[in-house]
Write a structure and sequence with these properties.
Blueprint: E1 34-40, H1 52-59, E2 63-69, E3 82-83, E4 93-94, H2 96-107, H3 113-120, E5 126-137, H4 140-146, E6 151-155, H5 165-172, E7 176-181, H6 191-202, H7 212-221, E8 236-237, E9 240-241, H8 242-245, H9 254-272, H10 274-277, H11 287-295, E10 298-299, E11 308-314, H12 320-330, H13 341-351, H14 354-362, E12 366-373, E13 377-379, E14 382-384, E15 389-397, E16 429-437, H15 446-460, E17 465-471, H16 475-483, E18 487-496, E19 499-508, H17 510-515
Parallel strand pairs: 1-2, 1-6, 5-6, 5-7, 16-17
Antiparallel strand pairs: 3-4, 8-9, 10-11, 11-12, 12-15, 13-14, 15-16, 17-19, 18-19
Helix pairs in contact: 4-6, 9-11, 11-15, 12-14
The protein binds ligand JEK.
Length: 517
């Protein structure tokens, strides 16, 4: 790098020697090098660019880097580059005249704005980048955009920054000026920001990264999720065993590995960057993605712009009327098709009454959970207001002491066995009596979120056998239960409004399910 060179066409474009023969060759055909100029009062700060990736890229002619000392353009004996702020205030401001001389030369522009505009035309894309805490935030999208330019000039300020007329002047002269910030924190100057931006931009240029796959994989990451955790050998280290926590990773089954990685990426993004979850596009999310989002409390609504956060919480006294209404609305959707409207109505009137829900709310052996949206949303089925009940679940726990069961608890089917508690004590059985979701939210993951919460609540209540009966022909429901960890446990018959229905019975041990990620 040609530090302290006011001239802009020095031959020395890199102080790093080319790599010895046998090192990684550029994988993609490289075009013209990316020309980078950096103007700073601390040229040595940019020495870091000689190292690693950028240094090698310069050595290979992929990047043509020039670092200049701003003071070389100062006119006075003290090489002054700053002055006190107009209007008073703390600190110093960088002088526009010194910056003007420097940038004219580096950009090779006449001082007159009109003449400058003329000379700038037709020269490939050139961008004047000004790092500033007041800039637009530099993102991967910005890096991708700037990596397509031919020439980038970085103007690194210090003190309180550069006189605002500098950016204004070059913009008026037809130069593309990008005032950018690398994030919401305050640095002491633009150098560190320029280093960050240059590293992010340079690695996107063809041939700079040895392995172009890494860039390709990132463009998937650009679909909006954080990357999943990565592991290497040893498989077990300090008691942390990857094969136990992530059996798929060592299975050799690439589809399973990819699925588990994506599930992890979704879980991680939910935990760390919920702002990114909101920006996911529904058409990029498959059923397994939706299930992973739902487990983390995010619904993907049919017709909505992006996922919506769910509020899944214990039902309260104040929900009673809404719950009864929701129960009556949702029950018919899950009934076998041969039931008449009258049979269904009879069942609703007999079992889904305000009295029944009031009893459940008051009964500690009943875990009643409701779901609502965290914000208003539009779905294909209509508008759903935040807070409006959109689904509920009920877990009815068998009394361990043989006392009277909670109302509505069905007899436990023969196929359901009750394992002992983890501490060796007596197990506890419970029926997952209901999981119902408003028709407008069908397929959104709300049912999966309610299911996940029901399993967590059952685990907390000490349940070791959570079972359910579901209409045998409803494969979709069974698939959802299986995804939540339930397995087949026989069959039962069940009476709806006087008609006998055949149900599949499924069960899981919430104590085991709770231990999983
Ligand atoms: C370039 C000088 C230092 C420090 C004034 C700003 C609100 C007023 C200038 N992400 C980033 N953070 N900081 C920079 C950055 C900082 C710079 C310069 C970039 C040139 N400085 C400085 C304070 C202030 N305050 C915050 C209150 C101005 C940056 C980037 N990119």
């Amino acid at each position: 790098m040609s530090a302290a060179a006011p001239s802009v066409a020095p031959a020395a474009s890199g102080s790093v020697a080319p790599l010895p023969a046998g090192s990684v060759a550029p994988a993609a055909p490289a075009g013209a090098p990316l020309r980078l100029d950096v103007i700073t009062i601390f040229p040595d700060y940019l020495r870091a660019l000689d190292l690693s990736l950028i240094g090698r890229a310069a050595g290979e002619g992929l990047i043509d880097l020039h670092v200049h000392d701003l003071r070389d353009w100062a006119r006075d004996r003290h090489r002054t580059v700053d002055d006190t702020p107009l209007g008073g205030g703390a600190g110093m401001v960088m002088k526009p005249d010194v910056w003007g001389e420097a940038l004219d030369e580096v950009l090779a522009l006449p001082a007159d704005a009109a003449a400058a505009r003329e000379s700038a035309a037709g020269r490939g894309r050139r961008v004047l980048v000004v790092p500033t805490p007041a800039g637009r935030v530099f993102t991967q999208r910005t890096a991708e955009d700037l990596a397509r330019a031919d020439h980038l000039v970085f103007a690194c300020g210090r003190y309180e920054g550069i006189d605002a007329r500098v950016a204004e002047h070059y913009r008026a002269a037809g130069i593309e000026v990008a005032e950018l910030s690398i994030g919401d924190y305050v640095l002491s100057g633009g150098e560190a920001a320029a280093l960050v931006m240059i590293e992010a931009i340079a690695r996107l240029r063809p041939g700079v990264l040895g392995n172009p796959d890494s860039v390709v994989e990132e463009s998937h990451g650009a679909s909006g999720l954080l990357e999943q955790e990565v592991y290497t050998r040893p498989v077990a280290w300090r008691g942390l065993d990857v094969s136990r926590a992530w059996p798929a990773l060592l299975s050799g089954d690439h589809a399973r590995v990819a699925r588990q990685r994506r599930d992890r990426a979704i879980a991680r993004t939910i935990a760390r960057r919920p702002d990114m979850i909101e920006l996911l596009r529904p058409d990029t999310l498959d059923a397994a993605d939706r299930a992973a989002l739902a487990r983390g409390g995010w619904a993907v609504l049919d017709g909505a712009a992006g996922p919506v956060e769910l509020v899944v919480r214990p039902a309260a006294e104040a929900d009673l009327a809404d719950l009864v209404d929701l129960a009556a609305r949702t029950f018919p959707d899950a009934c076998p098709p041969f039931l008449t409207a009258e049979q269904i109505a009879r069942h609703v009137a007999a079992h889904l009454t305000p009295g029944r829900f009031a009893d459940w709310l008051a009964d500690p052996r009943v875990v009643l959970t409701v779901a609502a949206l965290g914000r208003d949303a539009t779905t294909r089925g209509g508008r759903v207001a935040s807070g409006e009940l959109i689904g509920y679940s009920a877990v009815l726990i068998e009394p361990g002491d043989g006392g009277a069961p909670p109302p509505g608890l069905d007899p436990r089917p023969d196929g359901v066995t009750v394992p002992a508690a983890p501490d060796g004590g007596a197990g506890l059985a419970a029926e997952l009596s209901k999981v119902y979701v408003d028709a407008r939210l069908r397929g959104s993951g709300t049912a999966a979120a309610l299911l996940a919460q029901a399993v967590r609540a059952a685990a907390a209540a000490g349940v070791t056998a959570l079972w359910l009966g579901t209409y045998g022909a409803n494969r979709r429901a069974q698939r959802a239960y299986r995804r939540a960890g339930f397995a087949g446990a026989g069959s039962r018959t069940y009476d709806v409004g006087g008609r006998i229905c055949h149900d599949v019975v499924m069960a899981l041990n919430p104590q085991e399910a709770a231990g999983e990620h």
